[in-house]
Structure formats: structure tokens, C-alpha cells
Design goal:
By secondary structure, the protein is of the alpha/beta class. It is built from two helices and 14 strands.
Length: about 150
Amino acid sequence: MNLIHLHRIANFLHRKRIPLLPKLLYYIQFLMFNSSLPASTQIGKKSTFAYGGIGVVVHARAIIGEGCVIGQGITIGGRSKKVEVPKIGNNVYLGAGCRILGDIVIGDEVVIGPNSVVLTDVPSGSIVVGVPGKIVKTGIVMRDFV
């Protein structure tokens, strides 16, 4: 079982405005995967969580595109005194333990290295590593990595 399966059910119930059940599924997710993934979070089709989604924390208003791979122990959320949260494009790989924080946009076909802390926008086709995250390569195509 993967965290995404429970989230898809909770998100469907949330969009249909069915009370109580999405919150119940949230607590089940927390108990099973030690993760915080609110039902209101938008996650695109074919996106998945590595290792079932253990230790993932995602903001309720975060947007994650299609075909993304989200590693274990990652955080996608806001920063102090800033209202907006990250928007992540399609076909993005988020390495284990990375942090995506603040009002930023991650483009399509991006690789975020493990334990990186990304605080600024990342253009499509880039590889980002480090603390704080720095672009080390551009012009990549994800099909070259699969």
C-alpha cells in the first residue's frame, strides 16, 4: 500500500464536500506512514511516493504535478511570514529528505537531490542539489534518467 492511494480517496471525498471521512483518512495516513498529507493537497495523476510515503509532510495548499516521484522524509511547505506555498511541475523527482519551502515554482522535469533545501524558483529541465539548493545542470530530459 502506498500513501497516494489513501490520499486519492481522501481528496475525492474532500472535493465532494463529504465531512469527517477525509479527516479520518488523514489520521489513518498519519498512523500508517507517519506522514502529514491533507486531503486538500492537489497531486497529479501518475505521481507516487517512494517507500510508501514514510515521513512526508505536505502543506494543505501545495500543488504537485503529474508523474512526480516524491521521496521519503520530504517537506513541501511554507516559510514564516509568507502566505504562499510551493507549486511543483510535472515529472519532478524529489530526493529523500529534501525540503521545498516558500512561495516558489518548481518547473517540469526537474531533479531535486536528496537532502537539498530549495528556497527559490527552479526552471524546467534542471538538477538542484545542496543547502541552499543550487542549480548544477540545466537542459535535462527526464527520459534520459529512466
